[in-house]
From TrEMBL:
Assembly and binders: F-type ATPases have 2 components, F(1) - the catalytic core - and F(0) - the membrane proton channel. F(1) has five subunits: alpha(3), beta(3), gamma(1), delta(1), epsilon(1). F(0) has four main subunits: a(1), b(2) and c(10-14). The alpha and beta chains form an alternating ring which encloses part of the gamma chain. F(1) is attached to F(0) by a central stalk formed by the gamma and epsilon chains, while a peripheral stalk is formed by the delta and b chains. F-type ATPases have 2 components, F(1) - the catalytic core - and F(0) - the membrane proton channel. F(1) has five subunits: alpha(3), beta(3), gamma(1), delta(1), epsilon(1). F(0) has three main subunits: a(1), b(2) and c(10-14). The alpha and beta chains form an alternating ring which encloses part of the gamma chain. F(1) is attached to F(0) by a central stalk formed by the gamma and epsilon chains, while a peripheral stalk is formed by the delta and b chains.
Signal peptide: none
PANTHER family per UniProt: ATP SYNTHASE SUBUNIT B (PTHR33445:SF1), ATP SYNTHASE SUBUNIT B', CHLOROPLASTIC (PTHR33445)
Transmembrane segment boundaries: 6-26
Family: Belongs to the ATPase B chain family.
Protein name from the UniProt record: ATP synthase subunit b
Record's bilayer topology term: Single-pass membrane protein
Keywords associated with the record: ATP synthesis, Cell membrane, CF(0), Coiled coil, Hydrogen ion transport, Ion transport, Membrane, Transmembrane, Transmembrane helix, Transport
HAMAP family, sorted: ATP_synth_b_bprime
Keyword hit for Phosphoprotein: no
Regions annotated as coiled coil: 76-107
Function per UniProt: F(1)F(0) ATP synthase produces ATP from ADP in the presence of a proton or sodium gradient. F-type ATPases consist of two structural domains, F(1) containing the extramembraneous catalytic core and F(0) containing the membrane proton channel, linked together by a central stalk and a peripheral stalk. During catalysis, ATP synthesis in the catalytic domain of F(1) is coupled via a rotary mechanism of the central stalk subunits to proton translocation. Component of the F(0) channel, it forms part of the peripheral stalk, linking F(1) to F(0). The b'-subunit is a diverged and duplicated form of b found in plants and photosynthetic bacteria.
Organism: Paenalcaligenes hermetiae
Length: 156
């Protein structure tokens, strides 16, 4: 065999093979590579969008937390004010009740003192009449006795 003819046929086979590869094999490979490249780019874009969404969500969460904390502080301050107002109102009511109870007790005591004075006057009058009776050694009639008692009560 001739070396030139072998080289010539090998070149023809090589060019046919290169043409076949470029015509039928290469386009599906480049399409698959391009599709894979597009999927990777889409995945990276989705990951970046996810990161941006996560950052936005964290910012919203931070704002919500700050708002909730300020709401909580304002509600706590309002509750403390209401508690202080209720305590002050209860204190005033207790003072008024205390004053009313003391006034009632003083009035009851004054009435009791007056009642005891009246009772004591009656007893003193009875004792005075008995003493006078014993001194006089005679019985005073009941009308005179009643009149004497009334006079004695009035004097005391």
């Amino acid at each position: 065999m001739n070396l030139n003819a072998t080289l010539f046929f090998q070149m023809i086979v090589f060019f046919v093979l290169a043409w076949f590869t470029m015509k039928f094999v290469w386009p599906p490979l480049t399409k698959a590579i391009d599709d894979r490249r597009q999927k990777i780019a889409d995945g990276l874009a989705a990951a970046e969008k996810g990161k941006a969404d996560l950052a936005q969500a964290q910012a919203r969460i931070s704002l919500m937390e700050a708002s909730a904390k300020s709401d909580n502080h304002s509600r706590l301050a309002e509750a403390e004010k209401q508690a202080a107002a209720l305590i002050e109102q209860a204190r005033h009511e207790a003072e008024a009740e205390k004053a009313r109870i003391i006034a009632q007790a003083q009035q009851d005591a004054a009435q009791e003192v007056q009642r005891l004075r009246d009772t004591l006057r009656g007893e003193v009058a009875v004792l005075a009449v008995k003493g006078a009776e014993q001194i006089l050694q005679r019985e005073v009639d009941s009308k005179a006795h009643a009149e004497l008692l009334e006079q004695l009560k009035a004097q005391l």
